[in-house]
């Protein structure tokens, strides 16, 4: 609630504005002509112009900035004077005099409405405090304002009717349909106008799509009224009285009403009827003066600087708009900034982004993807370049945490083959990105020395990248520090947020700096520190990162943001996952974002806010060691989802950005896929149950998680649990369609195979289970393909598609095709929809059984990839770098590649570690043979930090046989309970369906058969049981809800992407001078090589020219300029 003084000021201002608007529109305007009524609305800018003059005078920035608002004041006052003259001199009456006074007073009262736009510019603490208080209580203020407007307007109408000599009966005689239609048109058009105006500003189309249309609105409205009248005016008698009873030839009622109303108001003016030049001149000049006054009072908007992504409250002062003064309110409500002689943008807070990739046994190609992506960002935001050419809003730093990077060679610690491959990859990419010279014939420059450091957790490699940004490779020794992904994440969270962020403030505190000031700065820095979590095979573009950064910068309550993940690879399993990922993002992820918030931001490409991770019960609880069976499933099998669950429970929001694309490798064979989903399925369910279990408390803390959203998640969870039974019913229907057997017999036949598979999963090894699932999946795929053909054949046989199965099939296909069409870059994925459909029994029946029965297996397995030889040379790297020219980005990721379930690896005893200590630097000597390393050491305080962190959270887990046996037994018990719950729920669903089908026609719902031409069959009906119909309608409703959410999300994704594209193009234009230099240097390079005879072989061709384009790309010139330069060089030769 606002304070008393703020509430009193709001009441007074809103009363004046409501009174002025009601008097002007209800009391005064009916006595004026159409020209006056349209143009007098522009006069409400008079007090805004006065406030601008005062603000500029107080700012003392020069007289030149005061002239325009001062001229605006003069023009508006002149308009009032000419307006009064046009009536009082030529057609004076008491009623007109009163109306003129009321109109002027009403316009001035309305102009008070935008006082907040200038309240903070007068250096008056009273106004600043009130403005701050109102901003914090904006919702309450809007409600109070609306109530006052309604009450004051009603009071003015109630007083005006008897005072004007009218009777209430005459008011009631107004045609009801016309009034309702006018109100509806005004409400809808005003709301749409406001929305489109806001969107135009956010898309950086400020001048062409906001300012100019708003300026021209009143002139256009006036033309719409007057032009049809002037066209129909007879040439022989230029007088409007002849049109008094004009009936337009058109049958449109709206045109007749509009023309008659315009003619009536014009005929009421003596200066119009008798064509008095003086009066008409006063009328026209007053209208022009008001319009010019509005233009000059809002000319500051032309110079308004908009950041790439802006909140509505940062663009407009008031949340509401004035329906009667639409274009005027939108212009005057735009935030005013004092113009200064020295132009300076609104302060841009620099955010620091730490890219943290976790690696293990990635292949050469996988490492190449992530390293090239990091070097692209280094080029995109250079640290050493002249800051006049680059934005300073983001700083990047790169970290790689490499698990199990060492091996034992003759009791000496050496970097293993995977670490060596990583060093080779970084070296090759570094060389490629370091070549600035466009001439490809000069010798390659030597690499600058980099640092290599021995650390308490293993070792560190520090690179200074070609453009000045820092990259650190943390090599983890599993005998010194705990391995696996979650513990690597804990490493970089505590290092970046606990050490790097807090250390400088702790030093300042030791220097006796003020504690409160340091806390505020630390809080601000934690909010502006982001961590981009990556996996070792993620491929992305700089645009993908910037789009995620925009989400966190725009909304301070957003703790994490993720984007669109694209699985890569070849083969049927990858094709299946491409469509699965697409549907999951198109519909499910967008529905979560729109109706609540995203439940999982995957760790392969997600941006986290430092303040969110540092919140209570997030980062600290994330360090919890699994001590119970459920912990192993929730904590270690799906650490990304658990981290998001902790953030959501603390009140942070997780968002999804569909324009931020990331690419990651997907499992390419059946075994890999099943092992991956064996981890994901139970972990997802465990975290969702945890979130729903604390739903009451979470909904109180987190405004994004409402009770309806919790209900939506409960329904989704129920649908997931009943998935196997639903698939069995689908298979049963397939049997009925294909072989026309009895429904109950078909249901029994559909249940038997999965039941047998469930029993076998308890008896057989996991590899055998997967083999059986693969065979059954193939058989089910043939069955589903036959079902589709049978449904199509049944539609032909029934001579109508208006059957339950036909409508469902056609509706599903249409919905997915429309959804894909709204994602044009991904539309080709619909071709995989058929494969996805025939694999439904495998993905939602067999895989569910396999995941639940193997829930007790909590090992991640190990990659089956050795240290593969390099399959690509430097030329291949260069080719990959060329892909940076496209603006595609990656963002969601599949965590592992080839996996094999093996017993959990035990950690070697500490005695072995002690043996290696005398030779712990052997790895440094070994790697120095591959790269020019300068050996260095950690500062003593950082060394102490790592030692303390390792001892507190990250020491390797000691082997405990009794504890392992207890956990194994507990996991089996948890598996048995989960299997029982799943079996009971699905059995209950199937048994209920069985008995309903056994009862038959008694409880079946009869649906009449309808032919495509709309006729009803007299004797034929369709029978469907109630549960099936309920499920069908429920599933269709769920899809429809997700579809609506997708439409909403697509609109705002387009707005964000257009705004991003516009700002990036502007940054390129800043380098226009650089382009001239680039073009000249390019020509000189070609002249030099040709003049030296290097290419003087008579074979110069456009193909040879491509070599120069390819090399010049690495020079740091943006892609837009590169395209221009390429055309210049081709034209030159």
Automatic annotation (TrEMBL):
Signal peptide: none annotated. SUPFAM superfamilies: Nucleotide-diphospho-sugar transferases. It is found in: Cell membrane. GO terms for biological process: chitin biosynthetic process. It catalyses: [(1->4)-N-acetyl-beta-D-glucosaminyl](n) + UDP-N-acetyl-alpha-D-glucosamine = [(1->4)-N-acetyl-beta-D-glucosaminyl](n+1) + UDP + H(+). It is a multi-pass membrane protein. CDD domains: Chitin_synth_C (cd04190). GO terms for molecular function: chitin synthase activity. Its EC number is 2.4.1.16. It is an enzyme of class 2 (transferase). One of its GO terms (cellular component) is plasma membrane. Keywords: Cell membrane, Coiled coil, Glycoprotein, Glycosyltransferase, Membrane, Transferase, Transmembrane, Transmembrane helix. InterPro entries: Chitin_synth (IPR004835), Nucleotide-diphossugar_trans (IPR029044). It holds the Pfam family Chitin_synth_2. The chain crosses the membrane at residues 7-28, 34-54, 66-90, 96-115, 140-161, 173-198, 210-231, 709-738, 744-762, 774-793, 805-822, 829-853, 980-999, 1027-1048. Belongs to the chitin synthase family. Class IV subfamily. This is chitin synthase. It comes from Labeo rohita (Indian major carp).
């Amino acid at each position: 609630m606002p304070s008393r003084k703020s509430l009193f000021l709001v009441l007074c201002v809103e009363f004046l504005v409501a009174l002025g608007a009601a008097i002007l529109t209800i009391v005064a305007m009916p006595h004026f002509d159409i020209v006056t009524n349209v143009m007098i609305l522009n006069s409400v800018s008079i007090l805004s112009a006065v406030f601008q003059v005062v603000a500029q005078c107080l700012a003392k920035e020069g007289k030149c900035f005061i002239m325009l608002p001062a001229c605006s004041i003069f023009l508006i006052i002149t308009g009032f004077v000419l307006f009064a003259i046009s009536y009082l001199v030529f057609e004076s009456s008491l009623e007109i005099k009163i109306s003129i006074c009321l109109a002027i007073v009403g316009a001035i009262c309305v102009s008070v409405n935008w006082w907040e736009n200038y309240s903070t510019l007068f250096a008056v603490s009273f106004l600043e405090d009130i403005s701050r208080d109102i901003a914090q209580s904006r919702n309450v203020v809007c409600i109070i304002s609306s109530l006052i407007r309604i009450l004051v307007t009603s009071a003015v109408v109630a007083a005006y009717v008897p005072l004007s000599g009218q009777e209430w009966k005459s008011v009631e005689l107004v045609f009801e349909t016309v009034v309702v239609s006018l109100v509806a048109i005004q409400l809808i058009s005003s709301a749409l106008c406001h929305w489109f105006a806001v969107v135009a500003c956010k898309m950086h189309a400020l001048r062409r799509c906001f300012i100019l249309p708003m300026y021209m609105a009143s002139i256009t409205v006036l033309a719409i009224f007057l032009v049809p009248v002037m066209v129909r005016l007879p040439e022989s008698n230029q007088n409007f009285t002849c049109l008094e009873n004009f009936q337009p030839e058109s049958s449109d009622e709206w045109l007749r009403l509009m023309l008659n109303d315009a003619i009536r108001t014009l005929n009421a003016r003596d200066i119009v009827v008798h064509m008095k030049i003086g009066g008409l001149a006063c009328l026209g000049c007053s209208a022009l003066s008001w319009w010019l006054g509005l233009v000059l009072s809002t000319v500051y908007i032309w110079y308004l600087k908009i950041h790439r992504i802006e909140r509505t409250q940062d663009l407009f002062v008031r949340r509401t708009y004035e329906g009667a003064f639409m274009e005027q309110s939108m212009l005057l409500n735009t935030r005013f900034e004092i113009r200064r002689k020295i132009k300076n943008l609104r302060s841009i807070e620099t955010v620091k982004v730490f890219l943290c990739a976790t690696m293990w046994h990635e292949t050469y190609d996988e490492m190449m993807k992530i390293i090239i992506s990091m070097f692209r960002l280094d080029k995109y935001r250079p640290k050493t370049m002249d800051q006049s050419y680059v934005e300073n809003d983001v700083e990047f730093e790169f970290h790689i945490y490499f698990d199990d990077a060492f091996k034992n060679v003759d009791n000496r610690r050496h970097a293993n083959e995977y670490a060596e491959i990583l060093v080779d990859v970084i070296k090759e990419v570094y060389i490629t990105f370091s070549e600035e010279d466009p001439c490809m014939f000069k010798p390659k420059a030597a690499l600058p020395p980099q640092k290599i450091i021995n650390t308490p957790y293993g070792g560190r490699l520090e690179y200074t990248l070609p453009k000045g940004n820092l990259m650190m490779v943390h090599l983890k020794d599993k005998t010194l520090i705990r391995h696996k992904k979650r513990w690597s994440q804990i490493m970089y969270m505590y290092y970046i947020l606990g050490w790097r962020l807090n250390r400088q403030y702790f030093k300042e505190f030791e220097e006796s700096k003020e504690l409160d000031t340091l806390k505020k700065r630390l809080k601000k820095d934690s909010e502006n520190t982001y961590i981009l979590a990556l996996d070792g095979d993620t491929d992305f573009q700089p645009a993908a990162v910037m789009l995620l950064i925009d989400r966190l910068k725009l909304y301070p309550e957003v703790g994490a943001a993720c984007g669109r993940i694209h699985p890569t690879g070849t083969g049927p399993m990858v094709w299946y996952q491409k469509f699965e990922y697409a549907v999951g993002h198109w519909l499910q992820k967008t529905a979560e974002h729109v109706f609540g918030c995203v439940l999982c931001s995957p760790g392969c490409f997600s941006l986290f806010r430092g303040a969110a991770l540092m919140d209570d019960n997030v980062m600290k609880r994330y360090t919890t060691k699994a001590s119970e069976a459920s912990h192993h499933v929730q904590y270690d099998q799906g650490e990304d989802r658990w981290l998001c669950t902790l953030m959501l429970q603390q009140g942070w929001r997780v968002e999804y950005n569909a324009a931020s694309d990331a690419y990651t490798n997907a499992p390419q064979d059946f075994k890999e896929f099943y092992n991956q989903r064996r981890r994901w399925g139970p972990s997802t369910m465990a975290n969702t149950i945890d979130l729903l279990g604390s739903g009451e408390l979470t909904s109180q803390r987190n405004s994004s998680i409402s009770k309806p959203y919790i209900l939506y998640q409960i329904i989704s969870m129920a649908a997931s649990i009943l998935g196997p039974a639903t698939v069995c019913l689908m298979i049963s229907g397939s049997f009925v369609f294909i072989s026309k057997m009895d429904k109950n017999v078909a249901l029994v036949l559909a249940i038997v195979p999965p039941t047998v598979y469930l029993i076998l999963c308890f008896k057989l090894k996991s590899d055998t289970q997967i083999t059986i699932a693969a065979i059954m999946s193939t058989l089910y795929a043939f069955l589903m393909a036959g079902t589709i053909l049978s449904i199509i054949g049944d539609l032909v046989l029934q001579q109508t598609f208006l059957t339950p199965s036909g409508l469902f099939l056609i509706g599903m296909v249409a919905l997915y095709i429309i959804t894909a069409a709204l994602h044009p870059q991904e539309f080709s994925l619909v071709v995989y929809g058929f494969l996805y459909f025939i694999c439904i029994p495998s993905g939602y029946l067999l895989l569910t059984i396999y995941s639940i029965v193997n829930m007790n297996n909590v090992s991640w397995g190990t990659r089956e990839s050795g240290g593969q030889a390099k399959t690509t040379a430097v030329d291949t790297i260069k080719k990959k770098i060329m892909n940076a020219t496209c603006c595609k980005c990656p963002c969601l990721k599949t965590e592992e590649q080839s996996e094999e379930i093996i017993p959990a690896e035990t950690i070697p005893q500490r005695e072995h570690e002690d043996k290696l200590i005398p030779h712990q630097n052997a790895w440094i000597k070994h790697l120095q043979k591959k790269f020019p390393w300068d050996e260095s050491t950690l500062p003593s305080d950082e060394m102490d930090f790592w030692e303390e962190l390792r001892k507190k959270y990250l020491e390797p887990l000691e082997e405990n046989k009794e504890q392992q046996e207890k956990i194994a037994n507990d996991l089996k018990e948890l598996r048995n309970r989960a299997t029982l719950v799943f079996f009971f729920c699905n059995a209950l669903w199937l048994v209920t369906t069985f008995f309903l089908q056994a009862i038959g026609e008694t409880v079946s719902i009869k649906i009449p058969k309808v032919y495509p031409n709309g006729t009803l069959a007299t004797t034929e009906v369709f029978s469907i049981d109630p549960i099936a119909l309920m499920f069908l309608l429920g599933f269709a409703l769920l899809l429809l809800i997700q579809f609506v959410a997708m439409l909403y999300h697509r609109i705002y994704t387009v707005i964000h992407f257009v705004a991003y594209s516009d700002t990036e193009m502007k940054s390129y234009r800043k380098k226009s001078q650089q382009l001239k230099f680039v073009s000249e240097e390019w020509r000189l390079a070609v002249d030099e090589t040709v003049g030296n005879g290097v290419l003087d072989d008579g074979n110069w061709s456009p193909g040879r020219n491509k070599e120069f384009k390819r090399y010049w790309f690495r020079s740091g010139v943006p892609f837009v300029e590169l395209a221009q330069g390429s055309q210049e060089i081709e034209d030159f030769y």
